[in-house]
Amino acid sequence: QVQLVESGGGLVQAGGSLRLSCAASGRTFRRYEMGWFRQAPGKEREFVAAITWIGGSTYYADSVKGRFTISRDSAKNTVYLQMNSLKPEDTAVYYCAAHETASSWSYWGQGTQVTVSS
């Protein structure tokens, strides 16, 4: 069974930075895509960024392009989300997710809170 454990959330002022980590275990992730989603109070969960385990192709939501960077460390089975130039509207619970190629997002972490103060 795939397990995803996020860490690194917290409170930061607008313009600041945070790095989220997602430690993955339970499978060989060579055929997986890993991603980050977020959910703000009263809003639906939305896609933030994704990365393929093989090749490292990356995808971003328009709202975070140029500010957020997703990366992975294959040796540590860990995915990161570096968040720079944070805005109050980035405040949300951030979730790590994973899926096998040609499948839907199937595995989710428990979430980590990111709060950006103005």
Features:
single chain; 118 residues; mainly beta; 4-stranded antiparallel beta sheet; 11 strands
Précis, in short:
The protein is mainly β and about 120 residues long. The protein has strands spanning about 5, 10-15, 20-25, 30-40, 45-50, 60, 70-75, 80-85, 90-100, 105-110, 110-115.
Structural class: mainly beta
Summarize the amount of helix as a percent range: under 10%
Q: Strand percentage, roughly?
A: over 45%
What would you report as the Rg, rounded to the nearest angstrom? Answer: 13 Å
Order of SSEs: EEEEEEEEEEE
Mean pLDDT: 95
Number of helices: 0
Topology, element by element:
Blueprint: E1 3-7, E2 10-13, E3 18-25, E4 32-39, E5 46-52, E6 58-60, E7 68-73, E8 78-83, E9 92-100, E10 107-108, E11 112-117
Parallel strand pairs: 2-11
Antiparallel strand pairs: 1-3, 3-8, 4-5, 4-9, 5-6, 7-8, 9-10, 9-11
Structure, described:
- By secondary structure, the protein is mostly beta strands.
- Helices cover 0% and strands 54% of the residues.
- The chain contains no helices and 11 strands.
- It has strands at 3-7, 10-13, 18-25, 32-39, 46-52, 58-60, 68-73, 78-83, 92-100, 107-108, 112-117.
- Strands 2, 4, 5, 6, 9, 10 and 11 form a 7-stranded mixed beta sheet that branches.
- The chain is globular.
